[in-house]
């Protein structure tokens, strides 16, 4: 008699295989890049260690080697997080909207880095009154890889969509870093609020994966925390150290203190300060960011109007293709509109029961 497999065990086995493959890919990539870029330094260090060993013995040489390795690993962490060149040619070719009105924009951040953005515009009669979504994408590719998703947001939800390209990605200059991405986000917000032809009362901030951490940062920034209409977060994490430990099942990694991680993105701390209406979109088959992290962010969010929508079978990168995805966004937007009207007419805050929001289940269907 054939033994039936346990779905939970199969899922765990699949996640472990994916994690192992990803770890091997990352390790190979780091070794290759390090060897190509720093071969002269490696040779110099090797000669230096040999000299120290000859002069002072093995203990001093081993200590210096240990600290050198720690320093190298710390500074190579960006290579583990940011993938602006994947898929291939992502820094060369950036797809632009087809058949839609748009602007290809270049602006400068406060530290002088030029970044690229694309604003997809509703037809002239609706552009000035439509809600505008500021879209922060994940850690790989460029804004062109999100063009189909942006087209759907334009078509099915009626948004103007401002796609923001991080420094070091696509046509943007510079190199990615945590502080740098925050500055990019602030530059995008400054740009959209300075435009006189968009409705400043309907600015929606959207963030997926790494972009969710950027969205949480900018939505809790003192200058914008009261100006943003709503926030939408999709498959994002609580903090980078926590998600790194969840992805890579390595004993030494679990014991590392959080301060040893170069990139932090402490969303689980910042989310408590987020009082704006917030929609959480969570793919339940996400094998990169554990769905439990979205639950935790939802639970700890300081918003009194928050909704968590779960999409069964949806993976990390394909949740936006799920059946009911745009309905969830549209229903949430309508709820926020209504809450704004109630606040305005009654001149008081909308009371929403215990403030815990609702859980909604969705199914998967590629559209």
From TrEMBL:
Q: Which domain of life is it from?
A: Eukaryota
PANTHER family on file = ALPHA/BETA HYDROLASE DOMAIN-CONTAINING PROTEIN, PROTEIN ABHD13
The reply on keyword Transmembrane helix is yes
In its UniProt entry, what is this protein called? Protein ABHD13
Report keywords, A-Z: Membrane, Transmembrane, Transmembrane helix
Q: Name one GO cellular component term.
A: membrane
Tell me the SUPFAM superfamilies matching this sequence.
alpha/beta-Hydrolases (SSF53474)
The Swiss-Prot or TrEMBL record annotates one GO molecular function as: palmitoyl-(protein) hydrolase activity
Q: Where is the AB hydrolase-1 domain?
A: 131-240
* Residue intervals passing through the bilayer: 53-74
Alphabetized Pfam families for the sequence: Abhydrolase_1
Q: Does the keyword Membrane apply?
A: yes
Question: Quick one: which gene encodes this?
Answer: LOC106159200
């Amino acid at each position: 008699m054939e033994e039936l497999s346990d779905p939970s065990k199969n899922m765990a086995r699949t996640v472990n295989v994916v994690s192992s493959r990803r770890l091997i890919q990352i390790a190979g990539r780091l070794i290759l890049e390090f060897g190509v870029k720093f071969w002269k330094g490696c040779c110099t260090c090797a000669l230096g260690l040999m000299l120290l060993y000859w002069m002072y013995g093995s203990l001093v040489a081993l200590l210096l080697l240990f600290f050198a390795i720690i320093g190298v690993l710390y500074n190579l962490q960006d290579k583990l997080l940011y993938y602006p060149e994947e898929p291939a040619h992502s820094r060369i070719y950036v797809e632009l909207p087809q058949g839609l009105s748009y602007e290809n924009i270049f602006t400068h951040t406060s530290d002088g880095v030029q970044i690229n953005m694309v604003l997809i515009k509703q037809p002239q009669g609706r552009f000035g009154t439509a809600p505008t979504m500021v879209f922060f994408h994940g850690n790989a590719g460029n804004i062109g890889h999100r063009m189909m998703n942006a087209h759907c947001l334009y078509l099915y939800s009626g948004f103007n969509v401002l796609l923001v390209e991080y420094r070091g990605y696509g046509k943007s200059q510079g190199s990615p870093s945590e502080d740098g991405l925050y500055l990019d986000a602030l530059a995008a917000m400054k740009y959209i609020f300075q435009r006189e032809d968009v409705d400043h009362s309907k600015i929606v901030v959207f963030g997926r994966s790494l972009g969710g951490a950027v969205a949480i940062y900018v939505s809790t920034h003192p200058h914008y925390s009261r100006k943003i209409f709503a926030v939408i977060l999709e498959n994002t994490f609580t903090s980078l150290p926590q998600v790194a430990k969840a992805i890579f099942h390595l004993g030494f990694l679990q014991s590392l203190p959080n301060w040893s991680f170069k990139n932090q993105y402490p969303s689980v701390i910042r989310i408590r300060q987020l009082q704006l209406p917030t929609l959480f979109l969570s793919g339940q088959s996400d094998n990169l960011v554990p769905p439990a992290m979205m639950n935790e962010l939802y639970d700890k969010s300081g918003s009194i109007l928050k909704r968590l929508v779960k999409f069964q079978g949806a993976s990390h990168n394909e949740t936006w293709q799920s059946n009911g995805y745009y309905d969830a966004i549209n229903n949430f937007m309508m709820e926020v509109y209504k809450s704004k009207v109630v606040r305005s007419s009654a001149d008081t805050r909308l009371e929403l029961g215990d403030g815990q929001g609702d859980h909604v289940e969705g199914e998967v269907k590629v559209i």
